[in-house]
Amino acid sequence: MVCSIKAILYPPLCLECSQLLPKQGTLFCTLCLEQLTLVETVERCRRCFGELHKGRCERCIHRPVVIARQIAACEATMGPPLTLLKAICRGRKECLSAAASLMAYQWLKEKMPLPDWLIPLPLSFWQKQQQGLDYNLHLASALGKIFSVPVAPLLTKKFDRERFFTQGEFGTLPMAHAKKSGIVCDRRIVLVAPQLEDLRLRAAASALQPFFPMQIDALCFAAAG
Ligand SMILES: [Zn+2]
Ligand SMILES: [Zn+2]
């Protein structure tokens, strides 16, 4: 009864095209769902997931390895994947689990082993206030449920003093929790974020490196635009 009243008051509509959906609990109509496909990984760099040029990644050739592998589930430049990305950042619960399922699917398709810890990328205080919640943590938790892997929010964002005093710019740096981060020692960890942003992921990984993780990988919903 409650369900049918809810259906009358809030008829389920496709997130993308607003077409009426046959039942509650679905996010997209069949047509839009078809556009929510996993991004191909063959033509992409094994390290940073960037597109390869003549089989090489210009970005990764000359820099040290910080993250062994970065993987994204979808290309979210337009259509339903972009709509889903925006919904993740608004913390919509059903969207978080849908995105996490796609991420898990991509991870397993790539035959990546399950990690010991999932670590969400930190949001700034301002980002959390804006949305009223830590959507990175929620995304990591949704993924943790699928993988049965614990989530450890070890990273926070700190004011970047050096950048401020040397360049006069405001900015933040990811910092690892000094007392808690010992748990990553000799463990495989996976950084989790809605969007694959190479610099942010590398900065987060660098903050955790002093705690001797065995391997750091990253899993995101959207590939870099
Ligand atoms: Zn639709
Ligand atoms: Zn690369």
Question: Which helices and strands occur, and which strands form pairs?
Answer:
Elements: H1 2-9, H2 30-33, H3 58-61, E1 69-74, H4 79-88, H5 93-109, E2 117-120, H6 125-131, H7 135-147, E3 155-159, H8 161-167, E4 172-176, E5 188-195, H9 198-208, E6 215-222
Parallel strand pairs: 1-6, 2-5, 5-6
Antiparallel strand pairs: 3-4
Helix pairs in contact: 4-5, 5-7
Bound molecules: zinc ion (2 copies).
Summing up helix and strand content along with how strands pair, one would put the structural category as: alpha/beta
- Rounded mean pLDDT score: 91
Q: End-to-end distance, in Å? A: 44 Å
Question: What CATH architecture of the largest domain would you give?
Answer: 3-Layer(aba) Sandwich
Number of DSSP strand runs: 6
The domain tally reads 2
Given as residue ranges, the uncertain stretches (5+ residues, pLDDT < 50) are none
The largest β sheet comes out as: 4 strands, parallel
Helical content stands at 25-40%
Q: What is the number of helices?
A: 9
* Element-level helix/strand string: HHHEHHEHHEHEEHE
CATH names the topology of the largest domain as Rossmann fold
Beta-strand residue percentage = 15-25%
Give the overall shape: globular
What binds here, in terms of ligands, is: zinc ion
Query: In angstroms, what is the radius of gyration?
Result: 19 Å
**In which order are the strands of the major sheet placed?**
1-6-5-2
Structural account:
The radius of gyration is 19 Å and the shape is globular. The chain has 2 domains: 34 residues, no CATH class; 185 residues, Rossmann fold (3-Layer(aba) Sandwich), CATH 3.40.50.2020. The mean pLDDT is 91. The protein contains 9 helices and 6 strands. It starts with a helix and ends with a strand. The strands form 2 sheets. The protein has a 4-stranded parallel sheet, with helices on both faces. 36% of the residues lie in helices and 16% in strands. With 225 residues, the chain is α/β, with parallel strands linked by helices. Helix 4 crosses helix 5 and helix 5 crosses helix 7. The relative contact order is 0.16. One zinc ion binds next to helix 3.
